[in-house]
Description:
Strand order of the largest sheet: 2-1-3
Structural class: mainly alpha
Low-confidence stretches: none
Amino acid sequence: xxxxxxxxxxxxxxxxxxxxxxxxxxxxxxxxxxxxxxxxxxxxxxxxxxxxxxxxxxxxxxxxxxxxxxxxxxxxxxxxxxxxxxxxxxxxxxxxxxxxxxxxxxxxxxxxxxxxxxxxxxxxxxxxxxxxxxxxxxxxxxxxxxxxxxxxxxxxxxxxxxxxxxxxxxxxxxxxxxxxxxxxxxxxxxxxxxxxxxxxx
Length: 201
């Protein structure tokens, strides 16, 4: 048995598989977080009464931040494929901050009554009116969970992003090839078939 028989097999395929796995987890967390936050933002977060009328406000009316930051997270997940190296770290940091921001805004909106009071004033056509019998739903906490998942996706990008695959060269901007000199009519047709301009100087 020679020393070559003891040479360990290259670990590149395993590393590549692990990279794709963590990339898939990041994408799954990002999509799930966006679904949770955007769904929650469209639901009623607070309800009450304006005189004899019922009033309610959605999470999006209370704060546009959770939904907006969830969309930022989705855009960052797409941007991961277009950047490499330090760019991946920047995308990961942006995703982490977007998730934490969405979570913080959701917590702040969980007990907010300003938007509900504004809705009560609109119902009664009387400025300064406040809603009574106010109650809050659990949807802000669903948005909070979505924000935390987005932050986790950002952490995964920061930790593993440098090892993820990037877009292939076919997606990069094409470089202009030097024109090929056509000496014969056959060369001229071949150049045209390749998309080249044989008449270019």
